[in-house]
Amino acid sequence: MLGRHHLALSIMWGFNIIESGDFTDYKIAFASLAIGALLPDVDAPSSKLKKGDFGIIKARKLGIAVFYGAKFLFFYPYAALVSLLRKDAFKHRKSMHSICALFVLLLFLYYPVKYLGYLEYLFPFALGFLFHLFQDGVTVSGIYPFYPLSSFALKGGFVTGSMPSSVLFDLYSAALFAYNVGFFNFSLDPVLFLIGNIFFISFIGIIIKFFGIKV
After folding, report:
1. Per-residue DSSP letters for 56-96?
2. Distance CA 154, CA 104 (A)
């Protein structure tokens, strides 16, 4: 999935959960969600995080700092350790696209973030990271969610960067935005809304994969 879709879908999926939370600063909470949604692609040279591109917000200095900080302080050491078990540890959608990576990363961040007084923002960060993994899990390339402990692959039928896929995710993002700003005359519990959207995108991904449709 493209970076802009990771960012848009993650913010729209997590919008009401963040809004209903008890955060000291909601701007930091949403920024943490956005960074988490882009961070798994720190193993890709074309990452939007490297460009500081957060959709309508451009924060090049922040993006560069987070990108290179995560790359050199976490990704390279972590992938080097994983390479003792797997030879492809440095490849895209391997070491960083895993629940194992998120677990180790949260341990890595826990004490520094706690010391700085920002521990509450690890939750939206982790949420964004998990959203990214799931979103890539419905693409043809897929992910290995338990890498390096397992070779189990999670794959769907969406082709990253294809015209049909891009149009579909753009329209889907727009519909989610309309819902979140109250355009529709109904609202759901934030958790039910999230579960419903995950089920929806999973169902579509499985269907197009089953029928061999190129999307």
Report:
1. TEE-HHHHHHHHHHHIIIIIHHHHHHHTTT-TTTTSTTSTT
2. 21
Q: Which of 130, 124, 135, 132 is nearest to 33 (CA)?
A: 124
* Residues 63 and 110 sit within 8 Å (Cβ to Cβ): no
pLDDT average per 10 residues of sequence, the chain (215 residues): 92 94 92 94 81 63 86 94 93 94 96 96 97 94 94 91 91 94 90 93 88 79
- Residue corresponding to tokens 């402990």: 149
Say what the pTM is: 0.93
Are the CB atoms for 128 and 37 separated by under 8 Å? yes
Closest to 6 measured CA to CA, from 133, 99, 106: 133
Whether the Cβ atoms of residue 155 and residue 142 lie closer than 8 Å to each other:
yes
- Alpha carbon of 213 to those of 140, 156, 166: distances in Å? 11, 11, 15
